[in-house]
Amino acid sequence: MKFKQLHNSNTTNHESTSSLLTFPNELLLLLFESLDISTILSLSDVCNRFLSIGQVCLAKKLKDLNLGLSLIFDQEYRQIYNVEFAFEQFELESGRFIFIPKKSEVLRFTHSRMIMSPKLRKVIFTGIDDGANSDYKNFIQRSCTLSVESNNSILQKISTVYRIGRGLTHLKTQFKFTYSISDIPPLSTDKIRRGERWLTPVRFECLSCFFYPHEPIARKIIRDIIHFKRRNNQTKKNNTKSRDLSEISLSNTETIHAINEQRPFRKRFYHGVRG
After folding, report:
1. How many other CB atoms are found less than 10 A from the CB of residue 208?
2. pLDDT in tens for each of the 275 residues of the chain?
3. Which of 46, 163, 192, 234 could form a disulfide with 212 if both were Cys (CB 3.0 to 4.6 A apart)?
4. Residue 114: what are its φ and ψ, rounded to 5°?
């Protein structure tokens, strides 16, 4: 069963969709379990009922196939770390999929004004043969900056991605990465440099729509062009204001110079009248 057929507006497909919705949840769950992950995600975007069934089926699929996520970190494209996360649980009330690290790992970064903060570069599936599907190569569309300034604290990085969903609108969804920061090095560390921080990944949370296909590249380009025009217009306004202020200050300076030049003439004039 194809996702595009379910969204078709002709009468035949509309009737097939209506008859499919009359199936009991147990039968729909069996049908969903026989499908691959991409098809389950496509069907989950049809209606709220398919979404709830698809989420349960997706959680079972991740557990049975031992699928997880791989998070790739780096700092200025150096000190690259690849941390594998395993699927832990699915929260039915919130609809969140929770992943935790397969093993405890401590990542070594540096906090300094001369060095950029570390970043989360990629989030990809592990244990799945994506083939030519580029949607599984990296789920985040831009890198996320991680703060390592705080000491001995637990931080959360919340960011958003854009997906194809809910008809023709682009879907904005959040994901959350929780990690701890410490300035105390592990016991196995020999040499310590000033400003070093040790980052420990704790958990990764997202909704099922986080795994939806990426938004079209054309839409992304158009959105970037709009943002560029807005920034350009704002820059022009700021330049105009600064130019007006400079002209006002220049005119005031010329007026002061003119007054100063007139003062000696006035003094000579008054002295001449008195004499």
Report:
1. 22
2. 333 333 444 444 444 455 677 777 788 888 888 888 888 888 887 788 888 888 888 998 888 888 899 999 999 888 899 999 999 999 988 889 999 999 888 998 888 888 888 999 999 888 765 554 555 578 888 889 998 887 778 899 999 888 877 665 567 889 999 999 988 877 766 667 778 888 999 999 999 888 887 766 545 555 555 666 677 777 767 777 666 666 666 565 656 555 555 555 555 544 554 44
3. 163
4. -90, -10
Indicate the pairing of strand 170-182 with strand 153-164.
antiparallel
Alpha-carbon distance of 102 to 11, in angstroms, equals 49
Kindly report whether the global pTM for this prediction surpasses the value 0.90.
no
Local structure of residue 34 (DSSP, 8 states): T
Q: Which residues pair with 173 in a beta bridge?
A: 161
What 43-47 contacts at long range (C-beta under 8 Å, 24+ apart), as own/partner pairs, is 43/1, 43/3, 43/6, 44/208, 44/209, 45/3, 45/165, 45/166, 45/209, 45/212, 46/3, 46/6, 46/7, 46/17, 47/21
Sign of CA dihedral 107, 112, 115, 118: positive
- Return the amino acid letter for 186: P
Which helix (H) or strand (E) segment holds residue 28: the answer is helix 25-33
What tokens appear for 171 in the block?
A: 């879907």
- Per the document, the length of the chain is 275
Q: Are 201 and 71 in contact (CB under 8 A)?
A: yes
Measured between alpha carbons, how far is 209 from 111 in angstroms, rounded to an integer?
34
Tokens encoding 61: 């699929």
Strand partners, 97: 90, 206
Work out the end-to-end distance of the chain between its first and last CA atoms, rounded to an integer number of angstroms. 112
